[in-house]
Amino acid sequence: MRDPEPCRMKHTEDTEELTGWWQFFSRLQHLKVHQKIHTAVREYMCFECEKTFTTASNLKLHEMIHTGEKPYKCSHCDKRFSRSSSRKTHERIHTGEKPHHCTECGKCFNNSSALHSHTKNIHSK
């Protein structure tokens, strides 16, 4: 089993409070799901490969790897995706939409990871 993932948030002993970061969780249940990351409680397991997950929805997304299910089709080409967010990001290639803007130089990107790489490689030197 892998180590719990690091978190930039400071958790308190009381699971109903989150020091300085409570606004990220609109419901107590969302906080409890998040805290499973740190406690390594992974109660949902893929029967195909035995990988474990903290939520049933994450397991369902993972299982699409094994089934090859890709229900989301690009409206501009024949490419298909297992996640609607991946399709939306892909479709920006066709539309030219670049919603992620660098605050340092104003350069625009079609996905947040490209902006992050740009900021790290260009502006952090």
Automatic annotation (TrEMBL):
The keyword Repeat belongs to this UniProt entry's keyword annotation: yes
Pfam families linked: zf-C2H2 (PF00096)
What SMART domains would the database entry show?
Answer: ZnF_C2H2 (SM00355)
Fetch the Gene3D superfamilies from UniProt: Classic Zinc Finger
Start and end residues of each C2H2-type domain: 44-71, 72-99, 100-125
The entry's keywords: Metal-binding, Repeat, Zinc, Zinc-finger
InterPro entries assigned to the protein according to its UniProt record, in alphabetical order = Znf_C2H2_sf (IPR036236), Znf_C2H2_type (IPR013087)
Q: Name one GO molecular function term.
A: RNA polymerase II cis-regulatory region sequence-specific DNA binding
Q: Which SUPFAM superfamilies match?
A: beta-beta-alpha zinc fingers
The molecule here is called C2H2-type domain-containing protein
